[in-house]
Automatic annotation (TrEMBL):
This is Nicotinamide riboside kinase 2. It comes from the Eukaryota. The lineage of its organism: Eukaryota, Metazoa, Chordata, Craniata, Vertebrata. The gene is NMRK2. CDD domains: NRK1. SUPFAM superfamilies: P-loop containing nucleoside triphosphate hydrolases (SSF52540). It comes from Papio anubis (Olive baboon).
Length: 112
């Protein structure tokens, strides 16, 4: 769903939660020349194939491997009083449409 307030909610959570990072699905659109054109003559930006989901998952993996390093690299100041708390928000309108490949599964208990 577009224009439903996802980014507004995400920005509010970013301000309220300690050590919080966000990954926006909108940052992973493929280049314009790789976007299919529909029967109506318009580019199909609202389909999963318009996104580089592998690149997005690689970014999630980078956060999983080192939340502190990821936070610093993205301008998030790690708050010492909550140094054991790290939150990742994934924001996007097609997040639940993607079948996650096995290589990106997080083993149960892997995260604190």
């Amino acid at each position: 769903m577009t224009n439903s307030g996802k980014t507004t909610l995400t920005n509010s959570l970013l301000r309220a939660l300690p050590n919080c990072c966000v990954i926006h699905q909108d940052d992973f659109f493929k280049p314009q020349d790789q976007i299919a054109v529909g029967e109506d003559g318009f580019k199909q930006w609202d389909v999963l194939e318009s996104l580089d989901m592998e690149a997005m998952l690689d970014t999630v993996q980078a956060w999983l491997s080192s939340p502190q390093k990821f936070a610093r690299a993205h301008g998030v100041s790690v708050q010492p009083e909550a140094s054991d708390t790290h939150i990742l928000l994934l924001e996007g309108f097609l997040l639940y449409s993607y079948n996650l490949p096995r290589r990106h599964e997080v083993p149960r208990g892997a995260l604190p």
